[in-house]
Amino acid sequence: METPGAPPEKKKVITTFPFVIGRDGSDFNIPGDQTLSRQHVEISVRDNKFFITDLESRNGTYIGETRLPPRKPTSLGNSSIVRLGHRTQLKFEPQP
Fold it and tell me: Which of 25, 52, 72, 75 is paired with 45 by a 20 to 30 Å CA distance?
């Protein structure tokens, strides 16, 4: 997982699931974006597939222009780009 284009760009290899991403108090914190909720999304694995779940965030989680429904796991494809809130983008690339 990486945060492309966001200063400073961050990369993180996720090895433990579920994994929570947010502004503060999460497994991976992105403190500079106030449009992120404290605990914004959860990444999980089921049947060797990756899923993202919006944790009832205030400003939403998007794949493309589609806002994900809260608390409903959504499948992540290879090289998925997800927007959290208004400006943070995450790129997910499964590793072999």
Answer: 25
